Amino acid sequence: MREKIAMSDSPEEQTRKFFNASSITEKTLWDWLELLIIPVIFSFGGYLVSAAAEKVQEAAVEEQYQQRLFRGYIAQISELLIDKGLTTADEFSEVKVVAQSLTESTLRDLDAQRRNSLMLFLRSTGLATPLPGSESQSGILSWSNLANIDLSETIMNAIDLHYADLENANLSQAFLGGGSNLNNVKFNNTILDKTDFRDASLQEAVFAYTNLETAENITEEQLRTAFICNTKMPDGSESDRDCAFLIEQLLCNIAPPEGSDPGAFDPPDCNQLIANYADRDYDPKHSWDHKKKL
Q: Among candidates 238, 237, 251, which has minimal Cα distance to 282?
């Protein structure tokens, strides 16, 4: 029981009673803090353990998915190789189109490690680039639609990608050298940070709304054979060298409607189309910071 301090007590007695009362109060407060804090600590610790376990489980599930996806791809492509003669199939044959579609969709879902394993498989089987003496006319990824795909850190040396669409793709730190065929590839608004183009062929490849300032091993000679529009060059300058030509190609290369008679197709007047487009106040020398889609 807490002692009451009386005025009649001696100074020594008052001091003794004061310290007894203070120690009892402190002990009572600490007891209350123990009751409040300890459950919170245990609760927070349990949450951290639960969150860590959940992350481990999610990682395990993702790993299983990646492994099944990769093995499934290898099994399906191997069947096309053995039973359907994929390596000798014509460029636009049914088996080639099926294999290409399967490869495109699988690349979109694979992680970086397995993307590289897939590319190694394609090279070893002659599907990335036809092997010497092969009857195949092109690699499995030529004419492919790889727009908006993440191919960062992917090794694609000696690969045939001619006429592939890589618009809005992420190729940062990817390797596209080693004699890769990148002719007519569309690099529109493509991320090319530290992308390696060593010894790649870039004839009539299109670089539009791209930044080549941090691209690696890309030479003036390579770029002279490509089309450049509103692109930041390796030296930091901005170039719209081929914008007018690309606009003309975009507007004037119009194919006959599907199912129609090509001989009866009357193409539109190209000069008039360009004039109409010019009326929209398009200026190819616009600032890098104010992009306009072709």
A: 251
Do the Cβ atoms of 143 and 91 come closer than 8 Å? Answer: yes
* pLDDT tens-digit series, residues 264-292: 767 777 777 667 666 555 454 444 444 44
Residue type for 189, please? N
Distance of CA 167 to the CA centre of its chain: 11
Q: What is the pLDDT of residues 202-259, one digit of tens each?
A: 999 999 999 999 999 999 999 999 999 989 999 999 998 998 888 777 777 766 666 6
Residue entry with tokens 């009751």? 35
Amino acid at 233: M
Backbone φ and ψ for 292, nearest 5 degrees, come out as -130, 130
CA 211 to chain CA centroid, nearest Å: 16
What are residue 187's phi and psi, to 5 degrees?
-100, 75
Q: Is the pTM of this model over 0.70?
A: yes
Helix (H) or strand (E) holding 55: helix 11-84
Q: Token digits for 198?
A: 């060593």
